[in-house]
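Hi U.,

Before I forget, here's the chain from the pilot set. I'm dumping it here mostly so it's searchable later in email.
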Amino acid sequence: MTDLTLQPGAVTLSQWRAIYRGGRPTLDPACMDGVRESAASVERILARGEPVYGINTGFGKLASVRIDDADLATLQRNIVLSHAAGVGEASPEPVVRLMMALKMVSLARGASGIRPGTLDLLAAMIERGLTPIIPCQGSVGASGDLAPLSHLATTMIGEGEIVLDGERLPAAEALERAGLAALTLGPKEGLALLNGTQFSCANALAGLFEAETLLQTALVTGALSTEAAKGSDTPFDPRIHDLRGHAGQIETAAALRKLMDGSNIRASHLKGDERVQDPYCLRCQPQVMGAALDMMRQAATTLSVEANGVSDNPLIFADTDEALSGGNFHAEPVAFAADMLAMAICEIGSLSERRIAMLVDPALSGLPAFLTPKPGLNSGFMIPQVTAAALVSENKQRAFPASVDSIPTSANQEDHVSMAAHGARRLADMARNAGGVIAIEALAAAQGIDFHAPLSSSKSLEAARALIRQLVPPLSDDRYFHPDMEKAASLVLSGKLAAAADTDLPAIG
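Structure:
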C-alpha cells in the first residue's frame, strides 16, 4: 500500500492518482498551525457578537435568520443531517477515498475554521480504511456538492453508514470498531465539511485517470489494427506533425512509430502496396488521439488547481479575523473539465470502433470477412462490432456538455449551478464503454495479425498480442464470445495491455 504525505496546496497529480489507485494519504504536520489559527479566528469572530453567515446564521435563503449562541452546535448538526439527502447507488470506494482526501487537503489549508480534532478524525478515517456510504446522485455542483459531502459529514457525527473491512455498518459502530469517536461539531464545522467541490472533483479526477489508461491502450490497439490491415506508417512521419505543431499530435505519432518499429509485417509490404492512403481511422490517429491528449491535459491542469484549492464558504482569514462570503463552491471549472474529458473518452472509443469496422470488412482490410477463416458457416466478429457500435453511440449521447445546463435551487438564492457532479460522474460509465470497445478492437486486431503468420509484428506489439493470447485463443470457429470480451476488457481497463507493450506512452502528467 502506497504511503503518501500530502502538502496542502501542493499535492501533485501523481499523488491524487496514487490515492485513487489505493494509496492511503497523510497530511504534512506543518499544516496544523494554520488549522489551529483558523479555528481560533472563528472563536474571536463569534466573541464580537456580529452576525456571520454559516457561523451564527441560517443557510442559503435563510441566511438572514440569527441563531442564538446556545444553538450553534445544533445548527451545525442540523445542516449536516438535513443536507444528507442524496439518492442512488453508493459511490465507488476509490472515488470516496479520493473525495475524502480532497476534503482533507482543502480543510488543511487553514481557511475553513475547523478544529484540528475534526481534521484528525477525517484523516484517521482515511488511514484506517473507513468508506462512508455516499449516494451518487443529488448534487448540482453549487453551493458545492452539498448532498454527497453531507453524507460524508453525517458519518463523522455517528450517523449514516460506513463500509469497514468489506462490511456495511452503522457509522457509530464502524467508528467504534476503528477506535474512533464521533464528533460534536463546533461553529462553522458542519458547513465547512459539506460545502465544496470535492465530490465532483473526485469523480472528474477518476475519469481523468481512466481516460489516460484508455488513451494509452488505444494507441497500442490502434497500432495492432494498423498492422493487421497492413496499413502504412507514413502518416506517423514526424515531419508531418512538426509542421502542424500540436504537442499531443506530435507525441502520439511518435508513440505509434515506436510501437510499430521493427515490424516484419510492415517490412513485407513496403514495396508493391497499391493503396495510396489508408482510411482516417488508421491515418489520422495522431490527429484525433493527439487532440484528445491535449484536451485531457487541459482538464488535468484545471483539476489539479481545483484539487489544491479551498472551495467552501465563508472563508476564514485569521490574520484579520474576517469571514468572507464568496462563491468558490461553484464547480464550473470542474464541469468544464468533465465535459472535455467526456468528449475525449467518446472520441477515443469512436475511433477504435471505426478500426474494428474496417478490420471486419474484407474490402477495406484485405482480411477474411468478419475475421473468421470460414465466413458464412461462422459469423466471427460480426456482432462484437455491433456491440462496439452500440457502446460508442451510448457514449455519444452521454457526451453532451453538462455545464450548459442549469436549474435554480434554494428558492432562487442559488440561481445558477454548474451540474459538475453528474457531468463528472458519467465519466466512469463512459470509460467502461470505451474500454469495452477497445477490448473488442484488441481481439479483432490480434485475430487479424494471426492471418499474417509466419510474419510477426514489432517486439512491443507482439508482447501485447501475447498477453491477449494468454487469455483468449484465436477464433477458428464460432464460440461463446462474451467471456473473451470480458477478459480483454479486464486487460484494457487495468492498464495491463498498455503496459505489456513496454513502450513509453503519452501521459497526462
